[in-house]
Design a protein that fits this description.
single chain; 153 residues; mainly alpha; elongated
Length: 153
């Protein structure tokens, strides 16, 4: 006799607001968007790796939005490969954001001693560093919990 209950490990619809790794989508959006806007509002100098930070923040924001839509719509219920993709995406996003966070911190340290840069830009860079590391932590936690869920499949 076939069971009528779904045993799929990934939630769909409003169920994503009840599981710990998927609940992290919201702060990933918020802090990722803050990184994007803070870096966009700062002064860009020659030999500045903030282009990489912008790429990572926009890329992860767009892909996380698509991932969120896939989970809300329930498309993640078709196929057994989704838990693996979930872990792979969040691990990749963690690595990308870690590299972007280090680059942003490097730029901020270099701007500290430049007298031509208004303090406003320096403070925005500090905020961008803090937000970038916060997003890195969120993606890392999401990766860990997604990996635990993946291993239990």
């Amino acid at each position: 006799m076939a069971s009528t209950t779904s045993s799929h490990p990934l939630p769909s619809g409003c169920g994503i607001f009840t599981t710990i790794p998927d609940l992290l989508f919201i702060p990933e959006f918020v802090f990722g968007g803050l990184v994007w806007t803070l870096v966009a509002s700062t002064k860009v100098l020659v030999e500045n790796p903030q282009g990489w930070v912008m790429f990572v923040s926009i890329f992860c924001f767009v892909v996380t939005t698509l991932w969120f839509i896939i989970f809300i719509s329930g498309m993640n219920q078709k196929g057994a490969f989704w838990p693996t993709l979930d872990v792979a995406y969040h691990a990749t996003a963690t690595a990308l954001y870690l590299s972007a966070s280090v680059a942003q911190a490097y730029v901020t340290i270099q701007l500290k001693d430049i007298a031509l840069i208004p303090r406003k830009y320096y403070h925005e860079d500090i905020a961008a560093v803090v937000m970038a590391y916060a997003v890195t932590l969120l993606y890392a936690v999401h990766t860990i919990f997604s990996a635990i869920r993946w291993k239990s499949c």
